[in-house]
Design goal:
mainly alpha, 494 residues, globular, 70% helix, two-stranded antiparallel sheet
Length: 494
């Protein structure tokens, strides 16, 4: 007798979140529209709060939430007065066009392209080969292996535009090394390597513009709303000193708080050599992918300096080469079944929501509320950065996706910095810094997909993760302010 697959039951939190989301939405809609806010803007604030509640409680999956947000935007905004002709309704057709505008943005295209790069890496095994090449040369001392894991994460962040994909590459290697030597999965050593790799990935996300989807979403908003593009190399120049310093701090802090049982892995070099040998020689597809990746990295890093080709276009050209007959390394049938299309839908809806918030002036209104609430009307640039970054870091505790956080908060940040009158304000630079703070997801594994992936390896518990995450968050914030007052100020960002 065949058994039907039973769908996983919903949690109490999910059910409460779904009901609460709709109740809050209805509550906001029932409030009289403020004089300084349009009807459409008022309704979009309701949709924004609804989205935040749904995202924070994981009430439904991200693709389902994206569909809900799109439908609510089309209906609520569609039956709102047309800003250009207030006597008429905007219409659901126009509202829907605004809601789905995110799917045609450069950021959306770049995020989608990044997923194909990750698939290509996994298909060829090039990411794993890079990892093994680094780890096989570091030696058998635990300190060196841990250092090798962090360096591997750094190298992969330039080639693999997904923190989750990078962890998916590193995790099996870490587990493979420990288990092959008879070390329990729930050992301090395994916990140190896995937690350390996950926390470091947060800072590599900050450092490399193309390392994480949330950065691409933010860059898209900066480009469309501020009319300025942040080049790949300018982002790296600004973020690298901070990120590298934080990874160094993370290295020593985590070793102090998660003390491994061994100083050296006896037989570790043999095991690494065995794992490397099992991979065999470098395949032709790997060589092609490496050549394309190096070329892509070259064009990313020289954009605006040696040529005028934007990051999105160069990435699309690379994707074309992945599929080109005779040159390519995979076909569409292989790739499409391995792309997380649900996340693609979520990215597009999130970007669309942010764009509508800006177009309806809802983001501007919320920005004014934020500025008034914290008495920031006459605040200095430094104080503005300090308060906004602290707010975003705290808010991230309730989010499982930095991309969702960027989609909902960066439009508000842009409205704040554009409307602020502080002397020396660089709206583009301050928005960049706020995106850095949005990347913080250090306290709980659930704060980032890569954290959930590493937690799923059963090498550590939540308490162990928090043991490093809380002090790292505090130190990271303090150092963030130091950089805002010094280096970032000197290069004109703050």
């Amino acid at each position: 007798m065949s058994q039907e697959k039973v769908a996983p039951s919903r949690t109490k939190v999910q059910n409460i979140g779904l009901i609460l989301g709709f109740l809050i939405l209805l509550g906001i809609l029932a409030i009289p529209t403020p004089e300084t806010l349009s009807t459409g803007g008022h309704r979009m604030i309701g949709v924004l709060v609804f989205a935040i509640v749904i995202w924070m409680t994981s009430a439904v999956s991200y693709p389902v939430s994206a569909t809900m947000i799109t439908a609510l935007t089309a209906l609520l905004l569609g039956f709102s007065p047309n800003p250009e002709a207030p006597a008429k309704l905007l219409g659901t057709g126009k509202a829907l066009t605004m809601a789905i505008s995110g799917y045609s943005s450069n950021a959306m295209i770049l995020v989608g392209a990044a997923m194909f790069i990750s698939v290509a890496m996994r298909k060829t095994g090039l990411d794993r080969r890079i990892a093994m090449a680094v780890l096989s040369k570091v030696g058998t001392k635990v300190n060196r292996i841990y250092f090798g894991v962090l360096v591997t994460g750094l190298i992969l962040s330039f080639f693999v535009p997904s923190a989750t994909a990078r962890l998916a590459c590193l995790a099996p290697i870490i587990i493979g090394i420990t288990e092959s030597l008879g070390i329990p999965r729930r050992s301090q050593l395994a916990a140190l390597l896995m937690v350390g790799a996950t926390q470091a990935d947060t800072f590599w996300n900050i450092m490399v513009q193309t390392a994480a989807a949330q950065n691409l979403v933010a860059v898209g908003f900066m480009n469309s709303q501020l009319g300025q593009a942040v080049s790949w190399i300018d982002w790296l120049t600004a973020a690298a000193p901070y990120s590298i310093l934080m990874v160094i701090i993370s290295y020593f802090l985590s070793k102090m708080l998660i003390k491994p049982e061994f100083d050296e892995l006896v037989g570790g070099d043999e095991q690494l050599a065995k794992m490397k040998a099992e991979m065999g020689p470098m395949s032709f597809d790997e060589k092609k992918l490496l050549a394309i990746s190096v070329a892509l990295l070259f064009f990313w890093s020289t954009g605006g300096k040696l040529h005028s080709i934007d990051t999105t276009t160069t990435t699309i050209v690379a994707i074309v080469l992945f599929f080109f007959p005779g040159i390519g390394i995979m076909d569409w049938k292989f790739a499409q079944s391995r792309i997380d299309w649900g996340s693609v839908v979520m990215f597009g809806a999130g970007i669309g929501l942010g764009s509508v918030l800006l177009k309806t002036k809802a983001a501007t209104w919320l920005a004014n509320v934020f500025v008034t609430a914290f008495s920031l009307e006459t605040a200095s640039v430094f104080l503005l950065i300090a308060i906004m970054s602290a707010f975003l870091i705290v808010v991230h505790l309730g989010f499982a996706s930095a991309t969702a956080l960027s989609s909902s908060m960066i439009p508000i940040v842009i409205s704040i910095v554009v409307g602020h009158t502080a002397d020396g304000m660089n709206p583009l630079g301050v928005t960049m810094l706020m995106q850095y703070s949005i990347c913080f997801g250090l306290v709980l594994p659930v704060n980032a997909p890569q954290g959930m992936l590493s937690y799923g390896t059963d090498t550590y518990d939540v308490k162990t993760f928090m043991k490093t995450g809380i002090p790292l968050t505090i130190i990271g914030y303090v150092l963030f302010l130091v950089f805002a007052a010094t280096y970032w100020h000197w290069i004109g960002l703050s």
